[in-house]
Amino acid sequence: MTTSEENYLKVIYHLSNLSPKGVNTNAIAGMLDTKASSVTDMLKKLSDKELVNYQKYQGVFLTEKGKLSAKMIVRNHRLWEVFLVEKLGFAWDEVHEVAEELEHIRSEKLINQLDKFLNFPSFDPHGDPIPNAKGEMPTIAKQLLSEIEIGSTITCVGVKDTSVDFLQYLNKQQISLGTNITVLEKEAFDGTIKIEINHAVLVISDKIANNLFVK
Amino acid sequence: MTTSEENYLKVIYHLSNLSPKGVNTNAIAGMLDTKASSVTDMLKKLSDKELVNYQKYQGVFLTEKGKLSAKMIVRNHRLWEVFLVEKLGFAWDEVHEVAEELEHIRSEKLINQLDKFLNFPSFDPHGDPIPNAKGEMPTIAKQLLSEIEIGSTITCVGVKDTSVDFLQYLNKQQISLGTNITVLEKEAFDGTIKIEINHAVLVISDKIANNLFVK
DNA sequence: TAATATTTTTAGCTTTGTCTAAAAAATAAA
DNA sequence: TTTATTTTTTAGACAAAGCTAAAAATATTA
Ligand SMILES: [Mn+2]
Ligand SMILES: [Mn+2]
Ligand SMILES: [Mn+2]
Ligand SMILES: [Mn+2]
């Protein structure tokens, strides 16, 4: 499988979770920063290889084979992210780009030994679950901060948006995985939330609250 | 720079040491398992980028810029080989293929942090020197086992041939970097050498003796 | 339901890196 | 120093992955 094919598979996998009735050509193009016509070409190729079920104009689905391949790429990506943070001292906002390259290195032994070296981690630096060698991964009951009731104290366990901008905002506010958060007030008008973290009070927008996973 | 360009540069770099009066098109083709016509095309491209000095029919030389680029790829390759052996438990005959892929990951921070994580190693698992971030690397006075006089006891410090076949032969004979070797006899007729290693006597061919570096 | 807008696909072109076959240059042999 | 051989380059073609512009299908709106 080529790097390009792997990138398409991974994007289809991520989009499948959001739109379970077939992934759109345009959605894929948007994620890969390419054109719809290029996506159509690739879908035919992936279909020939039986990695996706594709019918003209009807959206695309991963086959079981395609889903497993996608999970293995996600596994690689997230294990490398753990390596970069835990072993090489990268910050959580610096790892994604490099992991995008490392995830395509083809070696079963490499990834399984890396997994072992890292002590079989269950989650990556952004709180996302890491599939094991069989493609199984933990499902954790997590909620968005925006859904939490006033007065509750919860813990940050992940981010929905993993963009550098968002992660650096969180750095600035000293919010990281494991940070405890108490919801003090919610503004009905615009969804703004007042929270307490690290013994300080902070007002965050609904956009922030909609991208922080807590438990 | 593309992966393909990097592979050409690296091969030209390695061949330059052997043929300092210009590297031949066919030699490059042989190393990369490609055709001479493809090499010619690439040489023009590398020349346009001022990575090599190339004149039709006259062989090719690396420019200073090209030499530094090549050294950085060699640096990546050898650091990853150290990582695979030291941290992930690979054997020295298992690392080359994976390192061929890892060496092309583009990230200054990645490679410099890896270097630090590995404690700034000077040599890779095959005894080859690792260039530092500036492209400098140690030169060590080493000889081929075939050049050693009878009666001398020396230490294995590297291999000239890094093929899987040769490395596995050495595994079988329990020869690795650091192994002490005493030269007992040399056969004038065919260059066969009788040596003592690990308190055992072993007869090796001239081909073996010509591919083992000792000091 | 008919007209309009959006999405998706097709057709045809481009770039990168490869190939084969033929031509040209350099080397070696006679 | 011709002739033959080997090496290298050129010419033309191909597959992968992308693009633009136009056509076709689907979805939306009036
Ligand atoms: Mn990532
Ligand atoms: Mn991640
Ligand atoms: Mn190697
Ligand atoms: Mn090596």
UniProtKB/TrEMBL annotation, chains A, B:
InterPro entries on file: DtxR_MntR_Metal-Reg (IPR050536), Fe-transptr_FeoA-like (IPR007167), Fe_dep_repressor (IPR001367), Fe_dep_repressor_sf (IPR036421), FeoA_core_dom (IPR038157), HTH_DTXR (IPR022687), Iron_dep_repressor (IPR022689), WH-like_DNA-bd_sf (IPR036388)
Q: Where is the HTH dtxR-type domain?
A: 1-63
Location relative to the cell? Cytoplasm
UniProt cross-references to PROSITE patterns, sorted A to Z:
HTH_DTXR
Pfam families in the record, alphabetically? Answer: Fe_dep_repr_C, Fe_dep_repress, FeoA
Q: Which UniProt keywords apply?
A: Activator, Cytoplasm, DNA-binding, Manganese, Repressor, Transcription, Transcription regulation
Write out the similarity annotation.
Belongs to the DtxR/MntR family.
Task: Describe the subunit structure.
Answer: Homodimer.
Q: What does this protein do?
A: In the presence of manganese, represses expression of mntH and mntS. Up-regulates expression of mntP.
Supply the name of the protein.
Transcriptional regulator MntR
Biological classification of the source: Bacteria, Pseudomonadati, Bacteroidota, Flavobacteriia, Flavobacteriales
